[in-house]
UniProtKB/TrEMBL annotation:
InterPro entries: Aldolase_TIM, OMPdecase_type-2, OMPdeCOase_dom, RibuloseP-bd_barrel. Residues 16-252 form the Orotidine 5'-phosphate decarboxylase domain. Keywords: Decarboxylase, Lyase, Pyrimidine biosynthesis. The keyword Lyase applies. The gene is pyrF. It comes from Roseivirga thermotolerans. It catalyses: orotidine 5'-phosphate + H(+) = UMP + CO2. Pathway: Pyrimidine metabolism; UMP biosynthesis via de novo pathway; UMP from orotate: step 2/2. Pfam families: OMPdecase. This is Orotidine-5'-phosphate decarboxylase. Its EC number is 4.1.1.23. Belongs to the OMP decarboxylase family. Type 2 subfamily. NCBIfam families: pyrF_sub2. It comes from the Bacteria.
Amino acid sequence: MNKKQLFDQIRAKASYLCVGLDSDIHKIPEHLRKADDPLFEFNKQIIDATIDYAVAYKPNIAFYEAHGLKGWESLMKTIAYLPDDVFIIADAKRGDIGNTSKMYARAFFEQMNCDAITVAPYMGEDSVKPFLDFPEKWVILLALTSNAGGKDFQNLALTEGDQLYERVLKKSQDWGSDEELMYVVGATKAEALTNIRQIVPNHFLLVPGVGEQGGSLSEVSRHGLNSECGLLVNSSRGIIYADGSKSFASVAGSKARELQQEMANYLEKYC
Ligand SMILES: O=C(O)c1cc(=O)[nH]c(=O)n1[C@@H]1O[C@H](COP(=O)(O)O)[C@@H](O)[C@H]1O
C-alpha cells in the first residue's frame, strides 16, 4: 500500500487506529481455547468487531513464534483473513547483515504479504536497505520507543550534539523517503513529538503505548498529526483484552470505536 492509499483509508474511516494482535493463548477467553486454532479464532472475531474503526493491524510476531509451526499457521491465516485495504504491520523488530535482512524482508513481504515491518536500526544502513527494495512496502524504524529502558541508549547525547534517536531520524533519511520509511515513537514519549516533527515533518509515525502503557491519545495527536495525518496509533491489550468473557469481541469493538471517535475529532481539529 502506498502513502496516498493509506491516507485515503484514514480519511474514509476517520481513523488512524492500529489494532495490535498480541494474541496470547493464556489471555484469550476460556471458551476459545478448545477451538482447532484458538489464536486464529480469537483474531478473526477481533478483526470482525474492529474492522470499521481501524486502518491497520499489527500482529506481534513473538506471540505466534512462541507456538512453533502452529503459531506460524495462525499468523498466516490471520494475515490472509485481513482485507486488502487494511495496512498490515509485521511487528518483528528485525535487522541483520544485508543478506540476512533480505531474507527477513522476503519472509514478511513476499511470503506473508505484509505492508510493513518493524526494524531495529542498530546495525545501520546495510541492515535496513534490503527492506527498502520492495515497492510499496514499508520499513518502520525504531526511533524513540515506549519502554522505560529505551532511554539507556536512545537518549544518549552524541559528541556532535544529537541524541541517538535524533541521529536515527536524520541519518535514515539518506536511505529512503517518506513513501517507504516510518518511525516508531512511543506514546509515552509524546513530549518529544514537537522536536521529532521538526526533523521528520512528513513521515508517518507508528505510535504504540496508549492504553495499558498509559500514553495519551490526545497529546500524541496534538503534537504528532500532520497534513496527511502522519500517525498510526496502536493499542493492543487495551482493545483485545478489554473483556475476558464471551462478549470479548463486542467489547473490543466498542473500545476501538471509542478511540476512532476521538481520532475523528483530532483529524478535524489538527489535520
Ligand atoms: O514496535 C512496536 O510496535 C512497539 C514499539 C514500542 O516502542 N513499544 C511498544 O509497545 N511496541 C509494541 O506495541 C504493542 C503495545 O501493546 P499494548 O501496550 O498492549 O498496547 C506491543 O506489541 C509492543 O511490542
